[in-house]
């Protein structure tokens, strides 16, 4: 798939939880800090999410030991409540996240423009690892959490 001639990667997962709950877990900064990492050596100590067109987001990702880190940040372009998020990263790449209501859960599909620093396969693996971490978090969290 390509956006305006740029190479993209699409990843996805299915979570057997209602779309309303999945949307809350995906967009609430208190939850983002708990699932936004690609592995046990990384964490997300801070998340800001102004979920509206033109709103900014900044999800800080760091090694647990503090040796490395970066900001995953940008601007929301379009929000279709509990359906779609389109955002533009600060490095000008576009990302689309689709949430599809299914009979017994929610399908999440992310399509992102690739960057030039890492191989496409490494980018796919990294983004999928974060999405898989979201699924694990969503499956194990309780609706009583923030």
Structure description:
- With 146 residues, the protein is an alpha+beta fold.
- It is globular and about 40 Å long.
- Strands 1-2-8-7-6-5-4-3 form an eight-stranded antiparallel beta sheet.
- The longest helix has 21 residues, at 120-140.
- The model has no long low-confidence stretch (mean pLDDT 94).
- Strand 5 (69-80) and strand 6 (84-89) form a beta hairpin.
- The protein has helices at residues 19-27, 29-35, 120-140; strands at residues 2-3, 6-15, 42-49, 56-63, 69-80, 84-89, 94-102, 105-113.
- It has a single domain (2-140), classed as Alpha-D-Glucose-1,6-Bisphosphate, Chain A, domain 4, CATH 3.30.530.
- This is Activator of HSP90 ATPase.
- InterPro entries: ASHA1/2-like_C, START-like_dom_sf.
- It holds the Pfam family AHSA1.
- It comes from Christiangramia sabulilitoris.
- Residues 18-137 form the Activator of Hsp90 ATPase homologue 1/2-like C-terminal domain.
């Amino acid at each position: 798939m390509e956006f305006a001639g740029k190479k993209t990667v699409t990843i996805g997962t299915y979570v057997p939880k209602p779309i309303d709950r999945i949307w809350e877990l995906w967009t609430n900064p208190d939850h983002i800090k708990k699932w936004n990492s690609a592995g046990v050596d990384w964490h997300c100590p801070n998340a800001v999410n102004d979920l509206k067109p033109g709103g900014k987001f900044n999800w800080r990702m760091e090694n647990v030991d503090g040796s490395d880190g970066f900001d995953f940040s940008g601007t929301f372009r379009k929000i279709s409540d509990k359906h779609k998020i389109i955002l533009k990263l600060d490095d000008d790449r576009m990302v689309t996240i689709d949430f599809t209501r299914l009979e017994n859960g929610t399908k999440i599909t992310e399509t992102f423009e690739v960057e030039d620093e890492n191989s496409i396969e490494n980018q796919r693996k990294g983004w999928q690892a974060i999405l898989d971490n979201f699924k694990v978090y969503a499956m194990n969290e309780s609706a009583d959490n923030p």
